[in-house]
C-alpha cells in the first residue's frame, strides 16, 4: 500500500499538495466566523452535483420543460429529493453570500493586498445571483415565466443596446423554446464555467494572502487541519441538515402550474432575495422614464461602490464608513423586502395576490394529477385548457359570473377551510400567519356557517359580528356585480330542482329573484297559486318530479341514485305529464310549439346546456321571454368547445382526482 | 503551505495596511505546532471531519443516483394480452416473400403518452397460407435487418449476419436466429402480433420489460 502511495506521490506530488491544503496557517487559530467561505464552496458543490443529475431528466423546450420537471418532481423515484436539494440550497446561498461578504468587510479582509480577491468575490456574488435568475425560469411555470418576463423586460432600459440585448437573451421577441435553451445554456454551462474559474482564482488568491485574522487575536496560531476543518465541517453539516429538513417537510420543491401567456398571474414575483429590487422599482421616484435609475443606474452604482470599498478602507475612517454602508445597504434591502412582502400579504391588493398564489397551487395540483392519470399527449398546458374543472370554471368566471353565481362565488374560489371556529379564523387572518403560513386567510375573503346555505360574507364581517358557530372559508372576494341570475352550483341535481320548485326559493336571489322570471307564469300561476297550497301527497309528487327531471340530465354524480330510483323516476314522469301537468307549459318527450317554458326533454343534459347557452332564445327555451342572457354561441362569444367545457364543469363531468394521485 | 512559506508570501513592511500589521503582532509568541504535531492531535475531531465530510458529500450524489436509477425501478406495462393488430391477411404477399409492417400502438415516453404511433416493425410472410412473424431487429446488436429481394434472404447491414426466410442464421456473427413473434389471426382476416423486444447478444431470446 505504502509503495503504491509513494508511486502516486512521486508521479503527482499529491502529498505536498495535501500538506499545503491542510496545513495552511491560521493566525489566531480557528474561528467560527471563518466558515462562510467553506459553506459556500460546499453549497456550490451540492448545486453542481444535483444540477448535473437534474440535467439528466430535464428538457429545455417550452413544450417539455414543465412536463419534465413535473416528471422529476412527481414520477421519478427520488426526483423530489434531488430537485428539493437543488432548490433549497439555492435559497440558502444568498444568505451565505451575504454573511461571507459581511465577514470580509467587517474583518477588513478586502484591504490591501487582497483587493483583487475581493473583486473576485463580488463577481462570484453576481454570478450566483445570475444563476438564480436563470434557474428560476427553467421549470417554465407561471411564477418563473412571469417573473422572468419582468426581469428581461428591464434589460430594455439599458442605454443604447437595451432592446437588442433583451432580444438576444430571450432568443427573439417571444418567450419560448429559445428562451429556455439560452437560459439553460447560461444556467448549466456558461455561468457554472465562469463560477469554477473565479472560485479557483478566489481560493488561489485567498491562499496566497492567507486568512485575515479577526481582531482581537488572542489565541495562538493553528493550522487549517484539523481545527478549522472541524468547524467548517460542522457548518456544512448544519447547511445540509437545514436543507434536508426543508426538502423532506415540503416535500421537494414547489412547482407552479404550467406557463400560460393567456392566463393572468397576480402572484408573479421574483425569488425572495430579489424582492428588494422589485420593491425599489415601485418607488414613485422611478415612475415613467426614470425607471432606468432604479433598475440599472443605482444598482450599478451600488455594486461599483462595493467594488471601491478596498480603496475607501485605506483611510482611517474609511473602514468604519464601509461597515456602516454595508449595514445601510442591508437595512435598506431588508426594509424593502419586508415592504414587498407586507404589501403582498396585507396591502390593498393582498386578497388578489394571495388568491393568485392559491389558485396557482390548485391548478398545479390538478395538472399534475391529470398528467399522472392520463399522460401528456401534447403539453401539460393543453391538459388544463381541455379540463372542464379548470377551464370551465375560468370561462364561467369570465362570461357568466357577472349575473350567475356558483355556490355564491364566481366559480374560481379555492376552498380553504371548513368548520373552523371564530378563534381559529381570527388566528388565521393574523399578520404573522399571512407572512409565514400557507393556511392564511384574508379578511376580505368569504365565509359562511358550516353546513348551511347562508350567503357568503366577508371573513372580517363575521369576525366583527362575533357570531357563534363554525365556518367554511373560501378564497374569493365579494364580486362587484350583484347576483342577478340563478346560482348554478348543482344545476339539475335533485336538490337543485327540488329547491327551484319551492315558491320562496324560486323568487329568491339563488334562483330567479333577480330576473324577470320572478314575475312570470311559472311563479305566478303555478308555484304561488298552486304549489304553495299543496298538501303532503302533492308535495311528494313534486319531489318525484324533481327526481325524474334530474334523471333527464344523466349527471355522472347521480348515476347510482338514478338507477336506485328507477321506479320513482317512472312515477315522476307520470306526475309531470298528467297529475301535476308540467307539460301544459313545457315540452317533454316531443317538441311542442305552443310551450311557453323551456323544453324539459333531456333537461340539464350536456346537449341541453350547450343548446341553451348557444341560444337561450331558441324556440326550445325562451323564444319570447328570455331575460338578458346573451346567445353565446350564435353571437360567437364562445366557441362550441368552450360552451362544452362550461357544461361539463357544471355537470361535474370531468376527471376526478383519486386521493393518492397528488403525490409529492 | 507551511509557516515559513507563509511568511515569505505575506508582504510586510511599508505599504502593508494597519490591520494586517496588527494581526501579525501576536503571531510571534504564538507559533503554531509543527504540521506533524497538529496532525497527531485530537483523533476524534479528525474522525468527525472524515466521517461527516464524507456523509454530507455523499448526500447530493445519493439523491442524484437514486433519481438516475429510476429506469430500473420502472417496468413497462403491456396493454391487454400484448397482441397488437398489425394488418390483414390480404396485405401479405401470397408468394411467400416477406413484407415489412409497422407496429402502431400507444406509447408512453416518460411524461408523454402518444396514441397510435409506430413502436417498431415486423416482417410477415405466408407459409402455406399461414402468417409467420419475425422481429426486424437483429438479435446480434440491434440493427434493423433488411430483406434482400435479389437473394431472397435477410441481411443485417451492420455486421453482415445472414438469415434465411424462416429467420434461422445462415452465416454471420449473430448469436441466435431472428426472433419469432407470436401471431394470431382474429376475425378471419385480422393479423395480430404479440409485439415485444428482446435483449440482443444472447443465444436465447430474453424479453425486455
Question: Any overview of this molecule?
Answer:
The complex is a heterodimer of chains A (664) and B (209). By secondary structure, chain A is mostly helical. Chain A has three domains: 24-346, Cytochrome Bc1 Complex, Chain C (Up-down Bundle); 383-485, no CATH class; 494-650, no CATH class. Chain A has helices at 2-12, 14-22, 35-55, 65-74, 79-106, 115-137, 142-154, 162-170, 177-209, 224-249, 275-280, 291-312, 318-346, 350-374, 380-385, 388-399, 422-429, 431-436, 459-465, 494-500, 503-506, 521-528, 536-552, 559-564, 566-579, 606-614, 640-650, and strands spanning 25-26, 222-223, 414-421, 445-449, 457-458, 470-477. In chain A, strand 4 (445-449) and strand 5 (457-458) form a beta hairpin. The model of chain A is unreliable at 660-664 (pLDDT under 50). Chain B has 209 residues and is α+β, with helices and mostly antiparallel strands. Chain B has a four-stranded antiparallel sheet, with no helix packed on it. A four-stranded antiparallel sheet of chain B has the order 5-6-7-8, with no helix packed on it. Chain B has a three-stranded antiparallel sheet with strand order 1-11-10, with no helix packed on it. Residues 1-30 of chain B have low confidence and may be disordered. The interface between A and B is large, with 68 and 56 residues.
Amino acid at each position: 500500500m505504502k509503495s503504491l502511495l509513494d508511486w502516486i506521490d512521486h508521479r503527482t506530488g499529491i502529498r505536498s499538495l495535501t500538506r499545503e491544503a491542510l496545513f495552511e496557517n491560521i493566525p489566531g487559530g480557528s474561528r467560527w466566523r471563518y466558515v462562510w467561505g467553506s459553506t459556500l464552496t460546499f453549497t456550490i458543490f451540492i448545486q453542481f452535483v444535483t444540477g448535473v443529475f437534474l440535467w439528466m431528466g430535464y428538457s429545455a423546450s417550452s413544450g417539455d420543460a414543465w412536463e419534465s420537471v413535473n416528471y422529476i418532481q412527481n414520477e421519478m423515484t427520488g426526483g423530489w429529493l434531488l430537485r428539493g436539494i437543488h432548490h433549497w440550497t439555492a435559497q440558502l446561498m444568498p444568505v451565505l453570500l451575504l454573511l461571507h461578504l459581511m465577514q470580509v468587510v467587517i474583518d477588513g479582509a478586502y484591504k490591501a493586498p487582497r483587493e483583487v480577491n475581493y473583486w473576485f468575490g463580488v463577481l462570484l456574488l453576481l454570478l450566483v445571483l445570475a444563476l438564480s435568475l436563470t434557474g428560476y425560469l427553467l421549470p417554465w411555470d407561471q411564477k418563473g415565466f412571469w417573473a422572468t418576463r419582468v426581469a428581461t423586460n428591464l434589460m430594455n432600459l439599458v442605454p443604447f443596446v437595451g432592446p437588442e440585448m433583451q432580444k438576444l437573451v430571450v432568443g427573439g421577441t417571444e418567450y419560448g423554446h429559445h428562451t429556455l435553451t439560452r437560459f439553460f445554456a447560461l444556467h448549466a454551462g456558461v455561468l457554472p464555467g465562469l463560477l469554477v474559474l473565479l472560485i479557483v482564482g478566489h481560493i488561489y488568491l485567498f491562499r496566497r494572502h492567507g486568512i485575515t485574522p479577526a481582531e482581537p487575536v488572542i489565541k495562538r496560531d493553528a493550522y487549517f487541519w484539523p481545527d478549522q476543518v472541524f468547524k467548517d465541517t460542522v457548518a456544512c453539516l448544519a447547511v445540509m441538515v437545514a436543507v434536508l429538513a426543508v426538502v423532506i417537510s415540503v416535500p421537494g420543491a414547489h412547482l407552479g402550474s404550467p406557463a400560460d401567456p393567456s392566463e393572468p398571474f397576480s402572484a408573479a414575483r421574483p425569488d425572495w432575495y430579489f424582492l428588494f429590487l422589485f420593491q425599489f422599482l415601485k418607488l414613485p421616484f422611478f415612475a415613467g422614464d426614470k425607471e432606468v435609475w432604479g433598475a440599472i443606474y443605482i444598482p450599478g452604482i451600488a455594486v461599483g461602490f462595493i467594488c471601491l470599498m478596498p480603496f475607501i478602507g485605506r483611510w482611517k475612517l474609511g473602514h468604519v464608513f464601509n461597515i456602516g454602508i454595508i449595514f445601510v445597504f442591508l437595512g435598506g434591502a431588508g426594509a424593502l423586502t419586508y415592504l414587498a412582502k407586507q404589501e403582498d400579504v396585507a396591502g390593498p391588493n393582498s386578497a388578489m395576490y394571495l388568491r393568485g398564489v392559491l389558485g396557482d397551487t390548485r391548478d398545479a395540483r390538478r395538472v399534475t394529477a391529470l398528467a399522472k392519470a392520463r399522460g401528456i399527449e401534447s403539453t401539460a398546458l393543453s391538459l388544463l385548457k381541455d379540463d372542464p374543472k379548470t377551464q370551465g370554471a375560468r370561462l364561467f368566471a369570465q362570461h357568466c359570473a357577472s349575473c350567475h353565481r356558483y355556490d355564491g362565488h364566481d366559480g374560481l374560489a379555492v376552498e380553504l377551510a371548513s368548520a373552523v371556529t371564530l378563534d381559529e379564523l381570527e388566528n388565521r387572518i393574523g399578520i404573522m400567519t399571512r407572512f409565514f403560513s400557507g393556511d392564511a386567510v384574508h379578511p376580505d375573503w368569504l365565509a359562511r356557517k358550516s353546513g348551511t346555505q347562508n350567503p357568503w360574507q366577508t371573513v372580517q364581517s363575521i369576525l366583527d359580528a362575533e357570531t357563534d358557530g363554525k365556518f367554511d372559508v373560501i378564497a374569493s372576494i365579494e364580486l362587484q356585480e350583484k347576483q342577478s341570475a340563478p346560482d348554478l352550483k348543482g344545476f339539475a341535481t335533485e336538490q337543485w330542482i327540488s329547491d327551484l320548485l319551492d315558491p320562496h326559493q324560486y323568487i329568491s336571489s339563488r334562483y330567479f329573484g333577480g330576473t324577470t322570471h320572478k314575475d312570470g307564469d311559472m311563479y305566478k300561476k303555478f308555484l304561488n297559486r298552486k304549489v304553495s297550497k299543496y298538501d303532503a301527497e302533492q308535495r311528494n309528487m313534486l319531489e318525484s318530479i324533481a327526481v325524474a327531471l334530474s334523471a333527464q340530465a344523466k349527471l355522472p354524480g347521480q348515476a347510482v341514485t338514478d338507477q336506485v330510483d328507477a321506479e320513482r323516476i317512472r312515477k315522476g314522469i307520470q306526475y309531470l305529464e298528467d297529475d301535476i301537468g308540467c307539460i301544459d307549459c313545457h315540452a317533454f318527450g316531443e317538441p311542442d310549439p305552443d310551450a311557453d317554458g323551456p323544453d324539459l326533454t333531456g333537461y340539464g343534459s350536456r346537449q341541453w346546456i350547450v343548446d341553451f347557452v348557444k341560444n337561450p332564445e331558441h324556440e326550445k327555451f325562451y323564444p319570447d321571454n328570455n331575460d338578458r342572457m346573451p346567445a353565446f354561441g350564435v353571437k360567437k362569444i364562445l366557441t362550441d368547445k368552450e360552451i362544452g367545457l362550461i357544461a361539463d364543469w357544471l355537470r361535474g363531468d370531468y376527471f376526478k382526482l383519486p386521493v393518492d394521485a397528488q403525490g409529492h | 503551505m507551511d509557516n515559513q512559506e507563509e511568511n515569505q508570501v505575506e508582504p510586510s513592511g511599508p505599504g502593508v495596511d494597519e490591520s494586517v500589521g496588527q494581526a501579525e503582532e501576536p503571531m510571534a509568541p504564538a507559533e503554531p505546532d509543527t504540521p506533524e504535531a497538529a496532525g497527531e492531535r485530537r483523533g476524534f475531531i479528525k474522525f468527525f471531519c472524515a466521517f461527516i465530510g464524507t456523509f454530507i458529500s455523499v448526500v447530493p450524489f445519493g439523491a442524484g443516483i437514486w433519481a438516475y436509477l429510476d429506469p430500473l425501478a420502472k417496468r413497462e406495462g403491456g396493454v391487454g394480452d400484448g397482441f397488437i393488430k398489425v394488418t390483414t391477411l390480404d396485405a401479405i404477399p401470397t408468394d411467400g416473400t416477406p413484407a415489412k409492417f409497422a407496429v402502431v400502438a400507444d406509447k408512453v415516453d416518460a411524461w408523454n403518452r402518444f396514441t397510435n404511433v409506430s413502436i417498431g416493425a415486423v416482417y410477415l410472410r405466408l407459409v402455406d397460407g399461414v402468417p409467420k412473424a419475425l422481429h426486424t431487429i437483429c438479435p446480434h446488436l440491434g440493427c434493423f435487418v433488411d430483406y434482400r429481394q435479389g437473394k431472397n434472404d435477410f441481411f443485417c447491414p451492420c455486421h453482415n449476419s445472414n438469415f434465411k426466410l424462416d429467420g434461422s442464421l445462415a452465416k454471420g456473427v449473430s448469436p441466435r436466429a431472428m426472433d419469432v413473434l407470436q401471431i394470431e389471426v382474429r376475425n378471419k382476416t385480422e393479423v395480430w402480433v404479440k409485439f415485444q423486444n428482446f435483449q440482443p447478444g444472447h443465444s436465447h431470446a430474453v424479453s425486455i420489460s
